Amino acid sequence: MQWPTMSDYQDAMQNPGLSFADPELRSGIPVTDSLGLPRPITGGFASVYQVVSGGRKWAVRCFLRHHHDSEQRYAVIGRALSSSRLPYTVSFQYLRDGIRVKNKWYPILKMEWVDGEPLHTYVAKHRSNPRALKDLADAFSDMCRELRSKSIAHGDLQHGNIMVVDGKLKLVDYDGMYVPGLDGLPSHEVGHPNYQHPKRNQSDFGPYLDSFSEWVIYVSLVALSVRPDLWDMLQVGDEQLLFSQRDFMNPAGSKALRVLSDSGDPLLEKLSAAFRQIIMLDDLSSVPPPDKAGDLSGFRSLVLRPAQAGAILGGIVKKIKLPEEKEQAQAGVAASSTGSLPSWVQGYLRPEAVRLSPPFAVDRAVVGGYAAVAFALYRFHIAGYLSLQLALWCGAGGLIGTMAALTWRFVNRPEFKQKKALVDEIRKVRREAKRAEKVLSKLQKEKDKVLAREQKSVDNIMYRLSMLSSEEQEEIARVDSWLNEQVSSVIELREALNRAEADELAKAANSIQLPLLGKKASSIIKHYRQKREPLLRKEEKLRLEAEKRKDMIRRKYQSQEHVFHTKLAEVKINYGKDAGALDKKIADENARLMSYRETESNLSRELRLYAEVSFGTYLRRIAFIR
Fold it and tell me: CB burial class (10 A; 0-12, 13-18, 19+) of residue 23?
């Protein structure tokens, strides 16, 4: 079935009395724009209009695309929402014969109109109010938890489908909703790309469907409540909150994730590290909800830990299970290198800084020896045994020797060796990360070329299809023109017969007496009817002939179009395989790069613990200066 376009629906909406079957909508008035036309809110699958009727506001959802089982799905969804009594949803009614467009009835969805602000608009207005955003994050978390308790998933949680009404949340657009009773069915959509896992497809359909979107929205709201400047810094707000599909496709190169992990705030660092791991999960059903994002125990089963630095450079990642108690975790960190733990765990455990530890006896003896030599040189000079120049040269030589000895002692201290090893390890990781970035950039360019070649092939085929369609229309138009010419001549003959019949009847009326007029008129009408019958049969024959010609034209072009559609499918399959292989390589390289970034972050964090391991601090410790 060919579904109406948005302009078709707009034409129908201008006359609700004739277009709607529902009594309330028939008597309603659509909200119009500045030009006086019905104002649509258009999405990928439907146009939504506001209709005011009897003091009530309705959202009329007109489908631009429809599925054969939509009515059954909406019936199941309606029963589930009615029985769940959730405060976040609105009632709706699926009307099979909802709106008449071009004398044909099409289904619509009639819903309560929600007067509120879309999520991103509300966030933009209140981004300078951290308390409001934190309350919003809590309200969002509560809503998601209640939906999960009923085994309900919205399927497309995003800024446009979450309305804020007096600080409370309402959900709209239930096209992709999962409820108990729809098990085993595919999803008809995959949601807004800026809020969905890049590996989501139509086979993903279950109560777990919203988990990734919950992470995206919850992390964004919490981050903005802590750092409102992120909104302007990341230049977001039109079709996203903080994150976009690009961040999910390339988490290692994500500016938003990098800003959060480098923010210096333990909560944001923790959320950023955990969210990175969520993005890397392949199985959408294994994504856990972020209900306990503020609780360390909530991430026990999520956290992926890189192995020791040397193994990380080989790209090996292992799962770890955190200790059950905070005291055990702190003890574990005290006994092992903090650099091997994720950054958000380090921020939580707060390990102690490394300090230069005694003994300093030998070092102080070296300094004392130099002081004694310097004093002796001074006394010899005062006594006249040494000239001032020689005493100064000897003192300078002694100072250089003493500093060389102290430097040698310092660089051989275990604390400095550990710090140097960390610095060397960071340099190695950075080199490997740069190599991975180059490989990733090369793969991305290769993928862009593949996609460009695919688009070029698709455009070429679509152009050929459009040309075929134009040729088909031209041939059909020629048949219509031929039919009009032939039918026009037949019509002219019929009209001439009609005029002749009328003239003869008029003459008979004037010349024949009334008792005989009826018989004569009947004879005249019968005569002309017999003359018109061949013309009517000829006209019908011409129309049948035209339809046969049109059918032949359509079949001819359908066979040609079938060839091009087959080619189009082959092009998409072949290029899809190439793009899929590159996607896998890009994902692997992303995982490797993210591992390097995570390792670098961990090592840098550990390096900060060695801030006091410096030559200046060493000299102060020798001089008994803390």
Answer: exposed
Q: Which amino acid is at 420?
A: K
Instruction: Return the CATH number of the domain spanning residue range 6-112.
Output: 3.30.200.20
Phi, psi (degrees; rounded to nearest 5) at 526: -65, -40
Nearest to 4 by CA among 141, 79, 136, 100: 100
Alpha carbon distance 103, 384 (integer Å)? 124
The residues pairing with 171 across neighbouring beta strands, listed in sequence order, are 162
Where does residue 534 rank: exposed (0-12), middle (13-18), buried (19+ CB within 10 A)?
exposed
Place of tokens 């977001």: 236
CA distance linking residue 201 with residue 188, whole number of Å: 10
Give the span between the Cα atoms of 20 and 62, in whole angstroms.
Answer: 12
Tokens of 537: 């049969």
Neighbouring CB atoms inside 10 A of 44's CB total 10
Q: How many of the other CB atoms lie within 10 Å of CB of 318?
A: 10
Tokens of 350: 């707060």
Average pLDDT across each block of 10 residues of the chain; the chain has 626 residues. List them in order: 79 88 90 83 80 90 83 90 89 90 89 90 89 91 92 91 90 89 86 88 88 93 90 81 87 86 85 86 84 43 34 33 35 36 40 74 85 86 85 88 88 85 88 89 90 90 88 90 90 88 85 77 87 87 90 89 88 87 86 81 80 83 74
State whether CATH 3.40.640.10 applies to domain 117-176+184-302. Answer: no
How buried is 164 (Cβ within 10 angstroms: 0-12 exposed, 13-18 middle, 19+ buried)?
buried
Among 487, 477, 418, 466, residue whose Cα is nearest residue 568: 466
Q: Looking up tokens 């500045």, which residue turns up?
A: 34
Question: For domain 418-608, is the CATH number 1.10.287?
Answer: yes
Amino acid identity, position 410: F
Is residue 504 within 8 Å of 522, Cβ to Cβ?
no
